[in-house]
Design goal:
Elements (H helix, E strand, L loop, with lengths): L1 H25 L3 H23 L7 H24 L3 E9 L2 H11 L5 E6 L4 E10 L3 H10 L5 E7 L11
Antiparallel strand pairs: 1-3, 1-4, 2-3
Length: about 170
């Protein structure tokens, strides 16, 4: 029975590491991604040999492995969300009169804002562009919401930013 729990929990750890490694590499953190990959493969090699040896006599090893894989994906996504690695770009579309007000509010919180003229279906708009660390996403969205300004907000993952204001590596 112990072997099933070992397979299950080891697979959760391995898949969670794989999720974080993938995110790190796609965000340009090759060194840390490679280090995590080393430990991920060590766990995988141990697991696969443990599962395959005696698989005919103990088919529940397959079930423990598959359940660990499923749970590992879920936990890996939660872990990645909590780590909030990287940067995001927020595109905020507001009315012409609300644009400068919202920009002042955000700048007062030390958030760099670029404001541009935009054109909506029926009227002129302002578009605010912000680049922020993902860890600050909730705070920035709450700040925008608390202004009671009617805004359309889109968020995009951003790999690299050169220059600008308010983001330090």
């Amino acid at each position: 029975m112990f072997i099933y729990f070992l397979i299950f929990f080891a697979k959760i750890i391995e898949v969670s590491l794989a999720t974080v490694r993938t995110v790190l590499i796609t965000r340009g953190e090759k060194f840390f991604g490679s280090i995590i990959g080393f430990f991920e493969v060590l766990i995988w090699l141990y697991l696969i040999t443990t599962v395959l040896i005696g698989i005919s006599e103990e088919p529940f090893k397959i079930v423990a492995y598959a359940l660990g894989f499923s749970c590992g994906n879920y936990i890996g996504c939660i872990l990645e969300d909590k780590l909030a690695l990287g940067l995001i770009t927020l595109n905020i579309i507001v009315s012409v009169k609300d644009g400068p007000t919202l920009a002042r509010t955000l700048r007062a919180e030390n958030i760099g804002v670029t404001i541009m003229d935009a054109e909506g279906l029926k009227e002129a708009k302002k578009m605010l562009i912000l680049h922020v660390k993902r860890k600050r996403k909730s705070k920035v969205l709450k700040l925008i919401t608390n202004t009671n300004i009617n805004a359309v907000i889109s968020l995009v993952d951003t790999k690299t930013i050169y220059g600008g204001y308010g983001i330090r590596k």
